[in-house]
Queue: 4 jobs
Job 1
Amino acid sequence: MEWEQLLAQAGFRVTTSRRVVMQVLQTAGVPLEPHEILERGRCLHRSLGLVTIYRTLALLTALDLVRRVHRQDGCHGYVIASPGHRHHIICRQCGQATEFPGGDDIHALIERVENETGYRVDDHLLQLAGLCPACRELR
Amino acid sequence: MEWEQLLAQAGFRVTTSRRVVMQVLQTAGVPLEPHEILERGRCLHRSLGLVTIYRTLALLTALDLVRRVHRQDGCHGYVIASPGHRHHIICRQCGQATEFPGGDDIHALIERVENETGYRVDDHLLQLAGLCPACRELR
DNA sequence: CTCACTGCAAAGAATTTGCACTGAA
DNA sequence: TTCAGTGCAAATTCTTTGCAGTGAG
């Protein structure tokens, strides 16, 4: 339950809505869009509103408790974040999102690009897509 | 002018609107959002409409003449694409976008992630952000 | 001459804001 | 008790669709 302490320490209140959003995301395992969070959250908290979800996601994202993931089509979903800078690989069949850590290979790549382009890189957006083990089974 | 031939070969017409959108993007060098393309395009083609820009971008993106780039905040812009699968590095100061090719390092990274996660990767979204050479000068 | 393409208006989504009420601390 | 947080309604964007007129081939 350490995220609750993190919230409190940062001066924010631990409310039912925030608990529900976190619980829904923790249970889901796949990236959810705001309206999907609403549907699932309503089961747990009748009066939950979409506006609150937007505001909650903005807060949780700012605190790095939740991460926003992109899709090529421009839609984005939200997933629970692990501590540290990580990236996601998303199954295009079932939507399952798995985090993986950045390794030396990313740094090597960034260094190469810095040399090739003359840029100084200070942020990166990396997301992979493919088939998860379970969906590969079904082929 | 080879993009015009590509359009024609694919059975699409080379119209003024499409020429204007391409020219604006080629001139810009930085990723532009639809409404920015409209503003600049109007200078060249008075009656240009936003709807046409959306439709044109969808077409050009499908033909891989233009690429969509993402920002963490969810906004996205469009830039001229070079042939082949490339990635972008975007200057957070001036917005300048530069393409760079994927090298062995990306394949190595993907292979590592496949081994670690069991996924079979078939697509990736990689975008870097930082300071371009010109903006670094000004520091 | 035809039909793909365009612009406009209007519909639909996605997201944000204003405001009075509610509940966590 | 107090003020951050909430829900609702309405305002903003952002993007897509329907349709009649226009122009590329």
Job 2
Amino acid sequence: MATAKEFDEFDAPAHLKRRSRPLRVADAIKDLMVENDMVAGDRLPSETKMIEMFGMSKGTIREAMRLLEAQGLVETKTGPGGGFFIRQVSHERARALLGNYFYFQNLRIADIYQLREMLEPELAASLAGKLPAHALERLERDIARYSSPATSLEEERDHHVNSLRFHMRLAKYADNAILGFLIDFMASILSDITVSRHLYDPPNFDLWKNGIDCQTRLVAALRGGDSDAARSIMTEHMKYARRLMQNQEDIVPKRFIRER
Amino acid sequence: MATAKEFDEFDAPAHLKRRSRPLRVADAIKDLMVENDMVAGDRLPSETKMIEMFGMSKGTIREAMRLLEAQGLVETKTGPGGGFFIRQVSHERARALLGNYFYFQNLRIADIYQLREMLEPELAASLAGKLPAHALERLERDIARYSSPATSLEEERDHHVNSLRFHMRLAKYADNAILGFLIDFMASILSDITVSRHLYDPPNFDLWKNGIDCQTRLVAALRGGDSDAARSIMTEHMKYARRLMQNQEDIVPKRFIRER
DNA sequence: CCCAATTTGTTCGTATGTATC
DNA sequence: AGATACATACGAACAAATTGG
């Protein structure tokens, strides 16, 4: 169990001496989580308890909790029975944090499509014959949301967003958590960019048609359990969309992804 | 410019009223960064200044800065000329933060290899003929580090780590920032797991041999600008390694990735 | 080498807000 | 409604780090 002594700054190795107290407390809490096999929902010691444990002031402890909160690892509740609780890092938080990184990385649209072209076909193939009826119906409802041609620019924008929503839905069903997360991340960035940069303007009828067509055939292939067909339909779709975005070599605009 | 009034809690829309003050300050600072096109190295207003600006106490401001610090967006320096400085989210920080997410996701070794098999061949292909001499030499030096068979378990472990280091090096040269980051991330997780789970035990001579062989041929292909060869060598290598890990269906052990 | 100025780091006491019983 | 247990927030004071004279 953690004692105040362990965290005494004078005990710290030389190269760690300068680390601030909140940072050290946050690390200690992480260790606590790992060593005690704590899971989401578990309660951490209260502020007062931590003040004793670490021999540090309330402000320092609070700063430490903020460090963990920003990482999505901890949430806070006031009132009796309240305190700091361990939280599973949410999809949305992870997406936003990774987005912060790419905020500085001069992403190009083509980069995103290069990834999508590698990942999405494999996801499609892996899901063939694996999805329950309600999932397939949900996908069909996603498609239905933009199945009639857009008659206004706003509708065109919504079509783009809804088309990407289909891909995010697919990503949720992924058996491979990394694969699912990444596909969702790509679609999410793309959706942001499409809206903020007005990439839906001018409307592109062919892209819409290809999207509807491919997604419809894809659902059929998924239902039929035809893995190869699913892969090649998705490949075709990605290549098509990529070609249309190919000239979008612009740097992705700088803005932070909001946690939704 | 931001004024205290803007952040008065009573001005906030209903659904945002409960957001804590540090959270709101952190968001305001992010907006400040975006709107003023601030870049890494730029200095944010000092504590005292922010206390005025937001009309909040020192503790609250500091908690807000910790929120940004944890995301890797801000660093702090004491002394004259010190203060809060904008910082480009580092590779290592992004890796650690994303690692937090997967800490809760029941990752399997096979999942990681599925991704590597998709991504690494494309990276290899895209680098053929593009790397300057010093980069190729660096890769060769990475290979040299484990070119003689391991004679002890520690050496075997180092061989695994060094082999993965080769892939991380390759990732650094990627033109596509997302692709590079992801490959590095996979190799990094794998390296962690290999060490912490002793996956290098028992030693696997064939895996080592295949690694050396493939990497040597890969560098030759990269130097010769043979894109297709580079892709197929990497594919072969990944498939081989994947097969050997195939039975490693275990859940990845729960531990946080340390920022290095 | 020391001293002074500047800026963050940390503590403590107090008061307030919030949810539960 | 009142008591309790918890986080949230403020303000004043002092400590530590860094820079420049």
Job 3
Amino acid sequence: MTNNAQPEEGKRSLNFIEQFVEEDLANGKNDGRIHTRFPPEPNGYLHIGHAKAICLDFGIAERYNGKCNLRFDDTNPSKEEVEYIDSIKADIHWLGFDWEDREFYASDYFGKLYDFATELIKRGLAYIDDQPASLISEQKGTPNKPGIESPYRNRSVEESLDLFRRMNEGEFEEGSRVLRAKVDMTSSNMHKRDPIIYRIMKCAHHRTGDTWKVYPMYDFAHGQSDYFEGVTHSLCTLEFEVHRPLYDWFIDQLKEGDYRPRQIEFNRLNLTYTVMSKRKLLQLVQTGQVLGWDDPRMPSLSGLRRRGYTPASIRNFVDMIGYTKYEAMNDVGLLEFAVREDLNKTATRVMGVLRPLKLILTNYPEGQEEQLETVNNPEDENAGTRLLPFGRELYIEQDDFMEDAPKKFFRLSPGNEVRLKSAYIIKCEDFVKDPKTGEITEVHCTYDPLTKSGSGESRKVKGTLHWVSAKHAIDAEVRLYDRLFVDEEPDGHKDKDFTEFLNPESLERLSNCKLEPSLANAKVEDRFQFTRLGYFCLDSKDSKPGNLVFNRTVPLKDSWGKGNR
RNA sequence: UGUCCGAUGGUGUAAUGGUAACACAGCUGGUUUUGGUCCAGCCGUUCAAGGUUCGAGUCCUUGUCGGACAACCA
């Protein structure tokens, strides 16, 4: 895929990270080696924001013949679970990326990190602090006010060494002591004010079991893990920019040669009408606002997958929005464009009526049936054709009939003609209305046998409708999704909680839908365009043979619906 | 009242000191057996002020506005 902003044909401009990488290559850094990593914490499901990082980490490696590791940053056993590891791996593979044999864990380096921490103590660069969290936090100061030094800061190396060992042997309670790096309590960078690098956690780890009673903090594990793995470019999001000086400080103490990972920060993905933080997404799941992490309304990769989004559409979307240092708000409409663009080329066109209205062809012989040929995809010559059963009684969309139609209504209304897609031109002669409710219950038309599709008949009519044969139609449930929030930036209001902006109409379930019979054989991976309506796929969880459930991925662009009605 | 980072059409990005452009959105029109797709066109942009320069979106200074940072989370 090409970048959206191209200086000229065939020449994609580089983003600022690629430019740095090419500079490093040109300068002969790391012997021309390019090595990245994607470092998720296994404490939740991946969302489309992670996809942006994945595309960059794996994409840079691919582009420059390098490697990209998958490394789970599993330094907090109280929050992390194996279940998440499996889902993360599945999502990355689904997007089309592979880490080969380089599946690593920060916990692989617990031994090395412990030794390094011990070494820091020996060099007088770390100490055990016996104070409670509240005091440590108080002494830390604020961004405007320097911190003050802990009374334990200058305790002896021997004492710290002894305490650290005993902390790991389980001798002390959680929270009673921590190991702190001795950096600078007056630094303007909060992260360098003697950061906590090890804490006591009497908690089994999913990989190391009960080997450890102390666990490194993320800040003490992340940069070093990159170093241990030979990562050349540590790509992460903007909020870690202020952590970089601390990572550099640790690497300064650790490194032996010239090599050190280069951290480059880029903007995270923000989408209109949605929230992206794991915490908020989890809240939606736990409060039942959505039906799980893979609810098709969620921006999680599992949700988007279930909704019908394709890996290609997500990768193209990510490519279109780019990587910068500006905290942007991306229009969710661009994501929808990306999936339409992909599906338009590949999805089989089928007939499906969501809100059925009975249509009777009064001059079509009772009991007669025929099979009409229709193309599977006008955008793909090789997609072939199939047969559609046709008869006297059909269903059309309720929206496609109006008793009193405005001039620009190109569909069915009394006295008007339309074409039934791949079938005949019909004329509306009459209709039946429920006298109590005013609801139209039946439309009566005549068909013109000379206008059969493909017969060469050249008469033109303004409108073409989709339809299904009443006798042959299969029943299905169809779920229509709308954006989860009614506000462009639901978590952008200081005085209001994001849940106040939940869209009560984000899910609409239609249970009486009529589909063409071929859809009885639909498979979960199949993508369809329901003609004139949108793109749909089988729901991977709830659909069963004989009880089909389809999800609408995205509606077709609709220039009629825009303001004409 | 700190440090760091940023600011280009409605949105997102490009232009790497030399004609401000691409995509989406919006609006016209054409084609069409999908009011889709496709095609043609229109709309509209460098935060402000100074400076350097033959020439500044780009470099410098100051200001304005926005974001990040004060978890024994990552």
Job 4
Amino acid sequence: MSDLTAVDVAVSPEAKFREYLMTQGMRLTTERETIVREVFASHEHFDADQLVSRLNQRTDGKRVSRSTVYRALAQLKDSGLLRAVARPNDREVYEHDYGYPQHDHLICKECGDLIEFVDDSLNEMLSRVAAQNGFRISAHRLEVYGKCANCCRPKRRQRKTDMI
Amino acid sequence: MSDLTAVDVAVSPEAKFREYLMTQGMRLTTERETIVREVFASHEHFDADQLVSRLNQRTDGKRVSRSTVYRALAQLKDSGLLRAVARPNDREVYEHDYGYPQHDHLICKECGDLIEFVDDSLNEMLSRVAAQNGFRISAHRLEVYGKCANCCRPKRRQRKTDMI
DNA sequence: ATACTTGCAAACGGTTTGCAATTTA
DNA sequence: TAAATTGCAAACCGTTTGCAAGTAT
């Protein structure tokens, strides 16, 4: 999906989350720990509903209610562990922010795939524009819509071996 | 607010809209005409609710229901007359697409102001990234969040030098 | 004890839609 | 007169929230 590689992090997501919660007078409960672990178990993009499903499929009985998931997502975002990247179908989509390099996305309108990319010139451009407008940037979201290489490929000769 | 200037257009928005509606087997009703006119009476960004308000304030009795406004917004978007640019407060924000040059936005998180800007290097960058990924771009949305010059300005007196 | 947290169900809010009445070609 | 359109109110749907019961310090 992407060749972006995680950068080395000194502290685990759980620890980082506990740290943040402490500063807010909150606690790292077992529910919150279950959520952080599940969230950082894979690098895929996800929305609230997908996360709830993953948590409900657990066999260890560590289910967490939908409300708690929503509350935790907000906290994970505030703590800098997650960031919201897009809203393709009116659902907020999240990805890892902590321990993962900053990047943007090509979004295929056909298959919905998110392709990550980085390009330094974007940051140069943003700095320049910010300076020109006396604007202090805190974040940005660049969504590039179109058709991915796979979907551009002519379908005439589709591999029928994919069918089972 | 912005020094982007409208480009010359051969056909009026109403005509363009009628043209599009025809191709869909639809009609340019008085309600739809009222809406297009109101929408293109000013270049400001707006959301559905603001448009409804503007239409309700009319003294000529040309009121249009909320549903019709929502339906027309979708049609105006499909026809290429409008485009959705941001979603600051969970409300879709629209702007003129037809007869207005392509640009992006700085979005002030404090006052909600949208500042338009253009920078050619963005397009160069997008072309490069698209080529690298075999991606065919159809559109993009760049939202830059932060604090505008106005909101950065201190409300109270701020000392420029550290006087001890 | 006090403060934080959870799960449930109800509320929220922007947007969409079913439908009967109305308008248009 | 058949097809499109409107306005109303209800539905929709992801998300948020009030609250009572539970848990940690």
